[in-house]
Amino acid sequence: MVKKVALVLGGGGSAGHAWTIGVIAGLAEAGIDMTEAADLVVGTSSGATAAAQVRSGIPPAELLASVLSPPAPSVGQNRPPPPAPPMATVFERVRAIGAAAISAADLQRAMGAFGLESDATLGPAAADQRRAMVAARLPRQQWPARPMIVAAVNAHTGELAAFDRNSGVDLVDAVTAGTALPGVVPTHNINGTRYINGGVRSAENADLASGYANVVVLSPFGERTGTLPAGQFEGIRRSPEWGTDLASQVEALRKQGSRVVVITPDADSRTAMGTDQMDPATRVPAARAGFAQGKQEATRITFL
User: Fold this and answer.
1) Alpha helices per DSSP H over the chain
2) What is the DSSP secondary structure assignment for residue 168, as one 8-state letter?
3) In this structure, are strands 193-197 and 188-190 parallel, antiparallel, or unpaired?
């Protein structure tokens, strides 16, 4: 293998994003700067936003400081936000889709159909507002020179879309598509095709790091679905027989010869992150806990 180091950033809502940035800053504090060491960064769901930040050229300590700072005023704050469905209703639908699915492809198509169905309720104005909100979160709105992949799912077919700088898709559109949570926000239209959150396929999509000798996976909820509210998105049904769960993807990478280090929240981080991954109030405690954990985890990354 000539490709050396891949960094895989999994999904996890507000809490997971903050924890991820905290871990990256903690690793850097301990001498492992993944923003420099990673030859590839893969981002899924909230990890797509984190990937764009990691590839922005901003030092890890500054990325952490931005998470710990008070949030900037939201884009379009003078306009009322579009109505959002109750999360309990969304989770109930996700549970039903997961229970009925007979394969990963079946689940992905059904989740895409759910997203397309929800577009009529959410309305077209919500799509424009959301793209502007995503753009405001990105330190740079152009693809980085160094390799980065944003995972999304084609809402019409359920197929994986792995966007990179050669896809002919703006970075803002790729991240907007890759973070579009079915039933909560609109699907994202790119050249006539609509996309949903890449976490529908896999919370990490670690298989996109195939071919890299060393893989570091930061998975906010990879081994934690049991403590999340039933049906919560990153806890969507995963089946080992489908190969979409993290353990299966890690096993496949190792069989190919990759050394894989998986970092998931420790006990202190789990406490700080709580059980509502979408709650913005979790960001500061999750980031601080992630920073402390990152400093401890550095000893596991022995190939740098």
Assistant:
1) 13-29, 34-37, 46-54, 60-68, 87-100, 104-122, 124-137, 171-178, 246-255, 267-273, 283-297
2) S
3) antiparallel
Element (H, E) at 188: strand 188-190
Per residue in 31-45, pLDDT (tens digit) is 999 999 999 999 999
**Positive/negative CA dihedral, 52, 56, 61, 66:** negative
Predicted TM-score (pTM) of this structure: 0.94
152 membership: H or E segment, kind and range:
strand 148-154
* Helices 283-297 and 13-29, packing angle to 10 deg: 40
Pairing of strands 40-44, 3-9: parallel
The DSSP string of 260-281 is EEEE---HHHHHHH-S-TT-GG
3-class state of residue 159 by DSSP: coil
**Contact indicator for 46, 11 with CB cutoff of 8 Å:** yes
215, β-bridge pairs: 6, 260
